[in-house]
Design goal:
815 residues; mainly beta; Maltoporin, Chain A; 22-stranded antiparallel beta barrel; 59% strand
Length: 815
C-alpha cells in the first residue's frame, strides 16, 4: 500500500513534455501561427506554432488533457491525450471550405518534403511589425536579409537584398501570380502601400528554390499568400502615427462565410509621411477586395488590389563629403557637377538629410491595379487542380525640373530672339510608363502516401510604352504643350512548363526532382530619352532542372541537399545601357544547398551551407543611370558561398529568442572596370580599362546577423528587442576601401499589447521605437568616376542615410 501511494505521488509529481509539428494535410506545408491549447479542469496552456510549424509544452504533469489545434482556413483538430511520459505529435490539419489553399498555385511553394532552404513568416509575425512601413522592412530580421529605404524611414521607395542579391534577382509571387516587373525585373513596393495588412503568410526561399513563374530566382523567392476568408463576420480599424509626421489609417471588414457559401472582404488604407530625407514625402493610398464561392470541392475566388503613390524623389542620395561635413569635398562636388548657387547653398547648408532636388513637384506619380481570378477544384482524395487568370494595369510618370537643357537634346530648334540665338532652356518634363501585364497559371497535383506530383505552367504577356513629355519650357521653340520628345514600345512573352515529383523511397528518405522549360521573347523599338535608337529582338530558351533529397534521421532531425540550375535573361536597362555594339549575355546559376534541421525540447535550429556558382553573372558596376537604376555588366565567373544558421530558443514560458547569422564569401574571379577619360578640355571619349582579380561582389556583406528577443510577462503582452548587424559592403566590384558602406548595428524595441474591451472583440496597441541607440548609418549607395585628362581623376560616392531614433505607434480595434 505504501508503495502504491509512493508511485501515485511520483506520478503526480513527474513533469513531461508535449511537442509536435502541425502540417497542412494536402500540401504537407507546415502551418505557422496555429493556436495549440492543452487543457483540463486544472490546467490551461496555450502556445502558437513557430515559423516551422513546431510547438512545445514543457513541465506538464501526468494527467488526461484535451489537445486542440486551430487556425483560420482549417477545421479544428482535437484529441484526448493521456500523459504518462514525453509525447511527440504529428498533427495534420484539413482545410475547411474556406481553406488557405483556395488561392495558392501550389507549384510555387516549398513544403516539408522540399530539400530547399526556406522560412515561413506567419500573419501574426507580420502584424506584430506592421505599423505602416513597406513589406521589405517587415522582413528585415529574417536570415541573410538587408533592407534599405530611399527616404530613410521605411516608407516610400524601399528595397531588399537576400544573400547580397538585389531585387531584380528575387522572384516574387502573390498567390502564385508573378509580381516582378517584366522589364526591370524588380518589384516596386511603393506601389503596394499597406499590402502587408492583407497578407496571410510569406514563404521566403533562399537560392533558386522552387521558383516557377516569372523571372528566375537568382538569390531568393518571396511567395506571398493573401488573406483567406474568416469564418465569422467582423472588421478592424487601425490608426497610427509616428516620427516625420507619419500617419496611417486603414479599415478592414469581412462578411464571413454566408449560408450560400459566398464570402467577401475588403480593406482601404492611407499612409502619409514626410520622410527622414528633406522633402522626401510619401502620399500613398491602396485598397484590397476579395470575394468568392467556397464549395466542398470547388473554390472560385476573385481578388483585386490597387495602390497609388506620390513620392518626392530622393534617389540622388547624399554625397560622402556632406555626410562627413567636409567643406572642401563639398566644394569639389559643386564644381564637378556644375551646381547653381541655389544648389550649392542647399548642399552646404543641409546635413545628413540632404536632398539634391529642390523643385516643389519633383515627384513620382504611379498607380497599379491588379486583378486575379482563381479556381481550385478537388477531384478526389488524390487529384486537385489550381488555375488562375491575372491582369495588371500600370500607369504613371515622374515629373522633374531641368535647368539649361539644350534644345538639340529634345529634337527641337534653337530659338532666335532679337538677333540672339538661344540654344537651351529651363523646362519641366514628365517621363511616362504605361503598361499591361496579363496571363494565366495552373498546376495539376497528385498526392498519396508516397508521391507528391505537380504538373504546371504559365503564360504571361507584357506590353509597355515609355515616353516623355515637356509640360512647360521657358522657351518653347517649336514644341507644343505635352510635346513628346521620345517614345518606345516593348513587348515580352514568357512561357514555362514544369513537372515536380516528391517520392518517399523509405520511411526516412524522400527524393525530389523538378524539370522546367522556359521560353522568353522580348523586343523593343523607338527612341530612349537621350534620343538613342532602341531596336532589339531577343529570344531565349532555358532548361532549369532541380534535384534533391531529404533524410529523416529521427523524429527531430532532418538532413537535406539539393542542386538546381537557373537561367535568367537580361533586363531592359542591361540591354539599352550596354555599350554600343555589345549585347549582355543571359546568366546561369548552379546552386548547391546542404542543410540540417533539428528540433529539441526548447530549441529548434537550422544550419545551411550554400554555394551559388555563376556564369556570366550581371554584377553592379556601382554607377546608376539617369533614373537611379543600377548599371550592370557581365562577368564570366563569380560565386557566393556561405553558411546560414537560425535558431528559436524557448528560454522559458515567457522568454523566446529568435536569432540568425550568415557568414559568406562573395567573389568575382576577374573584373574589368571601365572608366571614361573625357580629356583635358572635356571634348574626348577615351576608355580606360582597369583589371582586378578575386574581388568582392558589391553590396554583399560577409556577415549578417539578426535577433529578436521577446518577453511576455502576461497574456496578450509582449516586448521585444530587435537587433540587426550588417557588415561592410563595397559600392563596386574593386574591393576598394575608399568606396564602401561601413558596417552598422541597429536595435529596435517593439511592444505589442492585445487586451479585451467590453462591447468589441478586442484592442491592440503596438509601439515600435526604431534605432533606439541613434546609430548614424547608411544602408545603400552608389559610386562613379571619370577622368578629365590623366592628371584629373574624379571619384564620387553617394549614400542613402537612414533615420536615427524614431517611433511608430498604432491602435487597432476589432469588432
Amino acid at each position: 500500500m505504501i508503495m502504491l501511494m509512493a508511485l501515485g505521488a511520483f506520478s503526480a509529481w513527474a513533469q513531461f513534455q508535449v511537442k509536435g509539428v502541425v502540417y497542412d494535410q494536402q500540401s504537407g506545408v507546415t502551418v505557422a501561427g496555429a493556436t495549440v491549447l492543452l487543457t483540463n479542469a486544472d490546467v490551461k496552456k496555450g502556445v502558437q506554432t513557430d515559423a516551422n510549424g513546431q510547438f512545445v509544452f514543457s513541465d506538464v504533469s501526468s494527467a488526461v488533457y484535451k489537445l486542440k489545434v486551430s487556425f483560420v482556413g482549417y477545421n479544428s483538430y482535437e484529441q484526448s491525450l493521456e500523459l504518462t511520459g514525453n509525447r511527440t505529435l504529428d498533427i495534420r490539419l484539413t482545410e475547411s471550405v474556406i481553406g488557405l489553399n483556395d488561392v495558392i498555385v501550389t507549384g510555387t511553394r516549398a513544403n516539408e518534403k522540399s530539400p530547399t532552404t526556406y522560412q515561413n513568416v506567419s500573419k501574426e509575425e507580420i502584424q506584430k511589425q506592421n505599423l505602416g512601413q513597406d513589406l521589405p522592412v517587415l522582413l528585415n530580421f529574417t536570415p541573410s536579409v538587408v533592407t534599405t529605404s530611399d527616404a530613410g524611414a521605411g516608407i516610400g521607395y524601399t528595397g531588399i537584398r537576400i544573400r547580397g542579391s538585389d531585387p531584380t534577382r528575387i522572384n516574387v509571387t502573390i498567390n502564385g501570380i508573378p509580381l516582378n516587373d517584366p522589364e526591370s525585373q524588380g518589384v516596386f513596393w511603393v506601389n503596394m502601400p499597406d499590402f502587408s495588412s492583407s497578407v496571410s503568410d510569406i514563404q521566403i526561399q533562399r537560392g533558386v528554390g522552387t521558383s516557377t513563374n516569372g523571372a528566375g530566382a537568382f538569390g531568393a523567392s518571396l511567395n506571398i499568400l493573401t488573406d483567406g476568408i474568416s469564418n465569422e463576420a467582423g472588421g478592424q480599424i487601425n490608426i497610427g502615427a509616428g516620427s516625420f509626421n507619419t500617419r496611417r489609417v486603414n479599415g478592414i471588414f469581412s462578411t464571413g462565410l454566408l449560408s450560400n457559401n459566398f464570402a467577401f472582404e475588403a480593406r482601404l488604407s492611407q499612409i502619409k509621411s514626410d520622410g527622414y530625407i528633406d522633402r522626401a514625402f510619401s502620399d500613398l493610398t491602396s485598397w484590397y477586395a476579395a470575394g468568392g464561392y467556397y464549395g466542398k470541392k470547388t473554390t472560385v475566388k476573385f481578388i483585386t488590389f490597387s495602390g497609388e503613390e506620390q513620392t518626392y524623389q530622393s534617389w540622388w542620395g547624399t554625397p560622402e563629403a556632406r555626410l562627413n561635413n567636409d567643406v572642401a569635398g563639398m566644394q569639389e562636388v559643386i564644381a564637378n557637377n556644375g551646381y547653381s548657387q541655389e544648389q550649392a547653398d542647399n548642399l552646404l547648408n543641409s546635413g545628413r538629410t540632404f536632398n539634391y532636388y529642390l523643385y516643389d513637384n519633383q515627384t513620382d506619380n504611379y498607380g497599379q491595379d491588379h486583378y486575379q481570378l482563381h479556381l481550385g477544384h478537388t477531384f478526389n482524395s488524390a487529384w486537385s487542380l489550381n488555375a488562375a487568370l491575372h491582369y495588371t494595369k500600370g500607369q504613371g510618370y515622374f515629373e522633374e525640373f531641368r535647368d539649361d537643357e539644350d534644345f538639340a537634346d529634345y529634337g527641337l530648334d534653337n530659338v532666335t530672339i532679337g538677333g540672339q540665338t538661344i540654344e537651351s532652356t529651363d523646362l519641366i518634363r514628365r517621363r511616362w510608363l504605361d503598361n499591361d501585364f496579363y496571363g494565366t497559371t495552373f498546376d495539376l497535383n497528385y498526392a498519396d502516401d508516397k508521391v507528391l506530383f505537380t504538373w504546371g505552367g504559365a503564360f504571361n504577356r507584357y506590353e509597355g510604352d515609355h515616353f516623355g513629355e515637356i509640360i512647360w519650357a521657358e522657351f518653347a521653340s517649336n514644341s507644343d504643350i505635352r510635346y513628346r520628345w521620345y517614345e518606345s514600345t516593348s513587348e515580352k512573352t514568357d512561357f514555362n512548363s514544369y513537372a515536380k515529383l516528391n517520392y518517399q523511397l523509405s520511411d526516412k528518405l524522400n527524393v525530389y526532382g523538378d524539370l522546367q522549360v522556359r521560353t522568353v521573347s522580348y523586343n523593343g523599338f523607338g527612341r530612349d530619352n537621350d534620343l538613342r535608337a532602341i531596336d532589339f529582338d531577343e529570344n531565349w530558351t532555358f532548361f532549369n532542372p532541380k534535384f534533391g533529397a531529404i533524410y529523416q534521421a529521427n523524429e527531430s532531425t532532418q538532413l537535406y541537399a539539393s542542386f538546381a540550375i537557373g537561367n535568367k535573361e537580361p533586363n531592359r536597362s542591361d540591354i539599352i545601357d550596354a555599350p554600343v555594339g555589345t549585347t549582355p549575355e543571359h546568366e546561369t546559376l548552379n546552386n548547391l544547398e546542404v542543410g540540417l534541421r533539428k528540433s529539441m525540447e526548447s530549441l529548434a535550429f537550422e544550419l545551411n551551407y550554400y554555394y551559388m556558382d555563376y556564369n556570366n553573372q550581371l554584377v553592379l558596376t556601382g554607377d546608376v543611370n539617369d533614373v537611379g537604376a543600377s548599371i550592370r555588366t557581365n562577368v564570366p565567373d563569380s560565386y557566393r558561398m556561405g553558411l546560414e544558421a537560425a535558431a528559436l530558443w524557448s528560454i522559458s514560458d515567457k522568454v523566446n529568442w529568435n536569432v540568425n547569422a550568415t557568414v559568406s564569401q562573395n567573389r568575382i574571379n576577374s573584373f574589368e572596370e571601365v572608366i571614361i577619360d573625357y580629356g583635358t578640355n572635356f571634348d574626348e571619349f577615351n576608355l580606360i580599362r582597369n583589371q582586378y582579380e578575386d574581388t568582392d561582389i558589391s553590396f554583399s556583406p560577409s556577415l549578417i546577423m539578426g535577433s529578436q528577443l521577446s518577453f511576455s510577462p502576461f497574456e496578450g503582452f509582449e516586448i521585444a528587442l530587435l537587433s540587426k548587424y550588417v557588415g561592410e559592403q563595397y559600392l563596386d566590384n574593386t574591393s576598394n576601401d575608399d568606396r564602401k558602406i561601413d558596417a552598422f548595428f541597429t536595435n529596435d524595441i517593439r511592444v505589442n499589447y492585445d487586451f479585451p474591451v467590453k462591447g468589441i472583440k478586442g484592442m491592440n496597441l503596438s509601439v515600435l521605437v526604431n534605432n533606439v541607440f541613434n546609430e548614424m548609418y547608411e544602408s545603400n549607395g552608389y559610386t562613379f568616376g571619370y577622368f578629365g585628362g590623366s592628371d584629373f581623376e574624379v571619384r564620387e560616392n553617394y549614400f542613402y542615410p537612414q533615420a536615427g531614433t524614431n517611433f511608430l505607434v498604432s491602435l487597432g480595434l476589432r469588432f
